[in-house]
From TrEMBL, chain A:
It comes from Herbihabitans rhizosphaerae. It holds the Pfam family ABC2_membrane_2. GO terms for molecular function: ABC-type transporter activity. Keywords: Membrane, Transmembrane, Transmembrane helix. PANTHER family: INTEGRAL MEMBRANE PROTEIN-RELATED, MEMBRANE PROTEIN. GO terms for cellular component: plasma membrane. It comes from the Bacteria. This is ABC-2 type transport system permease protein. The chain crosses the membrane at residues 38-58, 78-97, 134-158, 178-202, 214-235, 255-280. The keyword Isomerase does not apply.
TrEMBL record, chain B:
Residues 26-257 form the ABC transporter domain. This is ABC-2 type transport system ATP-binding protein. PROSITE patterns: ABC_TRANSPORTER_1, ABC_TRANSPORTER_2. PANTHER family: ABC TRANSPORTER, ATP-BINDING PROTEIN. Keywords: ATP-binding, Nucleotide-binding, Transport. InterPro entries: AAA+_ATPase, ABC_transporter-like_ATP-bd, ABC_transporter-like_CS, P-loop_NTPase. SUPFAM superfamilies: P-loop containing nucleoside triphosphate hydrolases. Belongs to the ABC transporter superfamily. GO terms for molecular function: ATP binding; ATP hydrolysis activity. Gene3D superfamilies: P-loop containing nucleotide triphosphate hydrolases. Residues 321-349 are annotated as: Disordered.
Length: 287, 349
């Protein structure tokens, strides 16, 4: 075959893959140019404003009977608003963004006929999954960070800087409060990455992005129902969403880490399993 | 018929296959792919010499696209081997594919991005393209397929022909050793078809091996040096285009004013011949042209002109693929029949 290689246009041994930074930048460029990504992030980013303003008006009117303590806390608290917003949105809307992003990442590209182009470029299957996971993580992180920042600003505008009050009644320094909000962002993002890992695994099995969304959101609804049935207590440790109620623990002083720590372990398991399945399927997938 | 040509396949392959020095850009042995109970490709031994322009012909459902996808390592064969540029696919895909450009199963791009932006995305993934060269490479590729003026419009608004051109541009982003084009002229107007022909000719001049699948037999006849005819998932004929056309039933057209005497005198000498409007058609399977002319002259028949009758690719294709009913959709078959019947009738009249 030495004779065959003589006709090669380049004489130096050709590189086998494109620089990683260039590939990741290209993926980000694609992800953040997609209109639906921008719309979804924008809509979620304004939810803290809606919650903050909404509770502001509710304050003057009806008294707090029937309202959850979390919502009423947000009324006069710049620490609570971002964390409460994240806590409320992580039940349905944040998973929606992550699973939509994961659905577009592989199933959507396959439906478009563009996945083949990426494989032929070539990008190896493993690398492609890594790049896609990076893109999904970027969208998820962008959403949570933006929500937290806008929530914090809204809370400060409504209530001023001296209102970092915990559920336990203590007042935190501004730096401490921002630290806790930052932790909330990381924790929620990790939970959403667990959702995204499963969504990516589903995404490698189909050419229909709709199937991914339906499977993931359906699964979360089932988890939610199972989580309320006390006869199924033995099952609760494997339900990802079971630890999502522990986010408000960040508003206590001192913070009780138990629930959130458990949540991190649980999410880690989901991420490991999800990506393993996705990788196994990806390496045998027809292009 | 099919059988006789299939054995002839040795003729064409003989040039390409056995000598270890002569290089094959692509080679398959015993290739087979099944989807459930459906056999898409079976017992396929394909040889594509380096520098050749191979036209892959076959009715719809004959396994052309499946073969191409296996060549490119997109699909793992059920059985058999694929070698692309001397390396086994799909395992060597990362080594081989940077030097392979492909347009498979129609162009696939994102509707919300412009043509240029779509290409930029693919260019960023090209291992052999230095970052500094990306913008130039995209401009050149767009220019080459005649899409420069529409480069900044969204892909959503492209016509079928423009989409096809963008797909071609993606395959030509960097210099390639092999370019694989699946139905490249699909949806193109005559001018676009001519441009694709020029692009293929340009690739051939630069030593690039081209594998092109097509329904358009005239296209293949005009651009290809080699042909592989696929039918029901296997190659019923392959080799150099000229040689394959030779192996069709060879005939000699003799124009003469005295057709009856000519046919009689040939038949007396056990040479099959029949009268045609403009002369006689002599079957050359058992004899040669000089013998025929000599026989005619001896019998006192005036010969104005004698020339070899060329078997058209369409006729060859028809004989190879019409032999038995196949699983192709009826529309495609009748389309092929239409293409093929016309020359037959023309000759008979």
């Amino acid at each position: 075959m030495t004779a065959a290689t003589v006709t090669a246009p380049g004489t130096a041994p050709a590189p086998r893959r494109a620089p990683l930074g260039r590939v990741l930048r290209s993926e980000l460029r694609w992800v953040f140019r997609r209109p639906r990504t921008i719309i979804a992030i924008a809509l979620l980013a304004i939810t803290p404003i809606a919650i903050g303003v909404g509770t502001l008006f509710a304050e003057g009117g009806v008294n707090e009977q029937g309202e959850s303590p979390m919502v009423s806390m947000a009324i006069n608290n710049a620490l609570a608003l971002p964390i409460v917003s994240l806590g409320m949105m992580m039940v349905f809307l944040l998973p929606l963004v992550s699973s939509m992003s994961a659905a577009d990442a592989i199933a959507g590209e396959a439906a478009n006929g563009t996945l083949r182009g990426l494989m032929l470029a070539p990008v190896s299957r493993t690398r492609l999954l890594g790049v896609k996971a990076f893109g999904v993580a970027a969208v998820t992180l962008a959403t949570t960070v933006l929500m937290a920042v806008i929530g914090l600003i809204t809370g400060l505008l409504i209530n001023g800087t001296n209102t970092m009050i915990t559920l336990s009644g203590t007042t935190l320094s501004f730096g401490d409060a921002v630290g806790r909000i930052g932790f909330a962002v990381v924790w929620v993002t990790v939970q959403m990455l667990a959702v995204a890992a499963v969504a990516l695994a589903v995404s490698t099995t189909t050419e229909h992005p709709m199937v991914v969304m339906a499977a993931v959101m359906g699964g979360l609804i089932v988890f939610g129902i199972l989580g309320t049935i006390s006869a199924l207590d033995w099952l609760h440790p494997v339900l990802l969403s079971d630890s999502w109620e522990s986010l408000p623990d960040l508003l206590r002083d001192p913070i009780s880490w138990g629930g959130m720590g458990e949540g991190l372990i649980r999410a880690g398991c989901y991420i490991a399993i999800g990506y393993s399945l996705a990788l196994a399927r990806m390496s045998t997938k027809d292009g | 018929m099919t059988v006789s040509i299939s054995t002839e396949h040795g003729v064409g392959a003989a040039d390409a296959a056995p000598a270890p020095g002569s290089a094959l850009a692509a080679r398959t042995r015993g290739l087979r792919k099944t989807y459930g109970n459906t056999v898409a490709v079976d017992h396929l031994d394909l040889d594509v010499p380096e520098g050749a322009v191979l036209g892959m012909l076959g009715p719809n459902g004959s396994g052309k696209t499946t073969t191409i996808r296996m060549l490119l390592g997109l699909v793992r064969p059920t059985a058999g081997e694929v070698h692309l540029l001397g390396k086994q696919m799909p395992n060597a895909a990362p080594d081989v594919l940077p030097e392979v450009g492909a347009l498979v199963e129609g162009p696939g791009f994102h509707p919300f991005l412009s043509g240029r932006e779509n290409l930029r995305r693919l260019a960023a993934l090209e291992p052999t393209l230095p970052s500094g060269r990306i913008a130039t490479a995209i401009d050149e590729a767009l220019e080459r397929v005649g899409l420069a003026s529409a480069a900044n419009r969204r892909y959503r608004g492209y016509s079928l022909g423009m989409k096809q051109r963008l797909g071609l541009a993606a395959a030509l982003l960097v210099p390639r050793r092999i370019v694989v084009l699946d139905e490249p002229t699909n949806g193109l107007d005559p001018a676009g078809t001519r441009e694709v022909r020029n692009v293929i000719a340009g690739l051939q001049d630069s030593g690039t091996t081209v594998i092109v699948s097509s329904h358009l037999l005239a296209e293949v006849e005009a651009t290809c040096t080699h042909v592989a005819v696929l039918h029901n998932g296997t190659a019923v004929a392959q080799g150099e285009l000229a040689e394959l056309l030779e192996t069709g039933n060879a005939g000699l057209l003799v124009s003469t004013p005295d057709t009856t005497l000519a046919v009689d005198s040939l038949r007396d000498n056990r040479i099959p011949a029949r009268a045609m409007p403009e002369g006689i058609l002599v079957d050359l399977t058992t004899t040669t042209a000089p013998v025929v002319v000599e026989t005619l002259v001896r019998a006192g028949v005036g010969v104005h002109e004698a020339r070899r009758q060329r078997t058209g690719l369409e006729e060859l294709f028809a004989r190879l693929t019409d032999a038995e009913p196949d699983g192709a959709e009826p529309g495609a078959l009748s389309e092929v029949d239409d293409l093929v019947d016309t020359p037959h009738e023309g000759e008979a009249r």
